[in-house]
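User: Hey, my collaborator sent me this sequence without any context and asked if I could get a structure. I don't really work with proteins. Can you help?
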Amino acid sequence: MRKTTFKTILMAGLATLALAAPAAANELIGDWRTAPDDNGNTGLIRVVQCGTSLCGTLVQAFDASGAVMQSDNVGRQIIWSTNPTTNAGEYVGMLYSPDRDREYRSRLQLTGDSLSVSGCVMGGAVCREGGVWQRVN
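Assistant: No problem. I've predicted the 3D structure and written it out in structure-token form, which is a compact way to encode the shape of the chain:
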């Protein structure tokens, strides 16, 4: 009887953990307005579930005045292979910076409707702050 009870509790605990990770990841799903880049441009990034990770695609670009602009990067994945860590609201993955035409290992920190974005290259030797993105929906 004792083994059955322990096994039942263990299985219930594992099931809870398995369900908790996707629920946490779902907090990032939605539309995000990026911080202005080096040129003052911003973008609308749509974050969705991509298999077991999250990814985000640039769906619209805006110039420094806030007007919609044409961009070759519309439709491009800006974040990918992104997953929550064990730290509350923290995600790690990959990020593309259109203004620098560079890929970074990313760290995203979600606090309410704000997302602090940063990334590093060359094993962390060169890091860049990507500003704070705001949830649109």
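In plain terms: The longest strand covers residues 53-62. You can pass these tokens on to your collaborator as they are.
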